[in-house]
Design a protein that fits this description.
By secondary structure, the protein is α+β, with helices and mostly antiparallel strands. Strands 1-2-4-3 form a four-stranded antiparallel β-sheet, covered by helices on one side. The longest helix has 11 residues. 17% of the residues are buried. A hairpin with a 5-residue loop joins strand 1 and strand 2. It is built from four helices and four strands; from the N terminus they run αββαααββ.
């Protein structure tokens, strides 16, 4: 980033969440390091969002992702979900901001 350009706080927090993600955060980088995953969106909202934001609203977080150009990627095949319990939902997000 060019000198003097301020990184929006949302992007800084998102990067920190992904860099410091613990298993109980239900989030982290994918193997390509260009995409990140949220393995259990509701638990992510309940446990992780309040530590970084003044809310735990998944809809607000998703809206912010869209604002900064992130897109939700389709999870191809059932193998992507094989490691997740049936009650969980895997979200993959990609963007060129991180």
């Amino acid at each position: 980033m060019p000198p003097g350009v301020r990184v929006p706080p949302f992007l800084t927090k998102l990067y920190t969440i992904m860099q410091e993600a613990a298993p109980e955060d239900f989030a982290g980088w994918c193997a390509d390091c260009e995409t990140f995953r949220i393995s259990d969106p509701q638990r992510f909202a309940d446990h992780c969002l309040p530590r970084f934001f003044k809310h735990n609203k998944l809809g607000t977080f998703t809206q912010q992702l869209h604002t900064y150009g992130f897109v939700r990627k389709a999870v191809e095949g059932s193998t992507a979900l094989a490691a997740e319990p049936a009650t969980r939902q895997l979200w993959l997000w990609a963007g060129n901001c991180l």
